[in-house]
TrEMBL record:
It is a peripheral membrane protein. SUPFAM superfamilies: P-loop containing nucleoside triphosphate hydrolases. InterPro entries: AAA+_ATPase, ABC_ATPase_HisP-typ, ABC_transporter-like_ATP-bd, ABC_transporter-like_CS, MetN_ABC_transporter-like, P-loop_NTPase. One of its GO terms (molecular function) is ATP binding. It holds the Pfam family ABC_tran. It comes from the Bacteria. It comes from Saccharothrix xinjiangensis. The keyword Transport applies. SMART domains: AAA. The lineage of its organism: Bacteria, Bacillati, Actinomycetota, Actinomycetes, Pseudonocardiales. CDD domains: ABC_HisP_GlnQ. This is Amino acid ABC transporter ATP-binding protein. Keywords: ATP-binding, Cell membrane, Membrane, Nucleotide-binding, Transport.
Length: 254
């Protein structure tokens, strides 16, 4: 495993008087696959969203590849970055949502080409070539001219993964990528994520798929009540959990 790619230190986040993250520390190394498990409402989505500054933290720091996210340090003070600087940072952080969030009016190929051309100003023919390679990788070459509404949920999610990869992200974040899918479509999406994991993509995956976590994760993080209750290799956290809350959670989902 490589250098630290994502680093959260003491991250806190409240919505009104609901403190959702209560001091989260997390390190993700280059090439590492971190799977985040935890009950509904435990702060998993909020945690992911702080990594690309979709949620602004109340306290603590987030950095990706050594770069502070959302802020610039001047002397001993932090200054919030301008929107366009935050957008630039986000181009290095891939995000795959539960509900795919494809552009409905664009074809599959156009969906994958859009960000590299508009955000990174890559030449269109080069972006297309790369997009086709990514669509081949997720098994959707023959669908490049289709519109999202004509694809199954599993196919749409695979397009969303190709789209996230098109910017060559430093880290790929997945927020319950299979929970909106019919059960028979879950496997094809997990297979794509497994393939990425094997090829050394750095990722943080929020999921309830414990089998997937066991097979793919280098590190499993169990989040409950806005704190990391337990973390370690799957063999420890899943098969020999130390904390009663981890045990209680696993006994429900397994
Ligand atoms: P999880 O993904 O683990 O289910 P979330 O991070 O989505 O948990 O939510 C944690 C808590 O934060 C929940 O109580 C949720 O209602 C609250 N929450 C999340 N986002 C917002 C928001 N934008 N405004 C108010 N409350 C929010
Ligand atoms: Mg969530």
């Amino acid at each position: 495993m490589g250098e630290v790619m994502v680093h959260l230190q003491g991250v806190r986040k409240s919505f009104g008087d609901n403190e959702v993250l209560r001091g989260v520390d997390l390190e993700v190394r280059a090439g590492e696959v971190v799977v985040v498990l935890g009950p509904s409402g435990s702060g998993k989505s909020t945690l992911l969203r702080t990594i690309n500054h979709l949620e602004k933290v109340d306290a603590g720091l987030v950095s990706v590849d050594g770069e502070l996210i959302g802020y610039r340090r001047r002397g001993d003070r932090l200054h919030e970055l301008r929107e366009r600087e935050v957008l630039r940072q986000r181009t290095h952080i891939g995000f795959v949502f539960q509900n795919f969030n494809l552009f409905p009016h664009l074809t599959v190929l156009e969906n994958v080409v859009e960000a590299p051309v508009s955000a990174q100003r890559r030449p269109l023919d080069q972006a297309r070539e790369r997009a086709r390679a990514l669509l081949a990788r997720v098994g959707l070459s023959e669908k490049e001219s289709a519109y999202p509404r004509h694809l199954s949920g599993g196919q749409q999610q695979r397009v969303a993964i190709a789209r996230a990869l098109a910017l060559d992200p430093k880290v790929l974040l997945f927020d319950e990528p299979t929970s909106a899918l019919d059960p028979e479509l879950v496997g094809e999406v997990l297979d794509v994520i497994k393939d990425l994991a094997r090829s050394g993509t750095t990722m943080v995956v929020v999921t309830h798929e414990v089998g997937f976590a066991r097979e793919v994760a280098d590190t499993v993080v169990f989040l409950d009540g806005g704190v990391v209750v337990e973390q370690g290799p799957p063999s420890r956290v899943l098969d020999d959990p130390q904390h009663p809350r981890t045990r209680a959670f696993l006994s429900k989902v397994l």
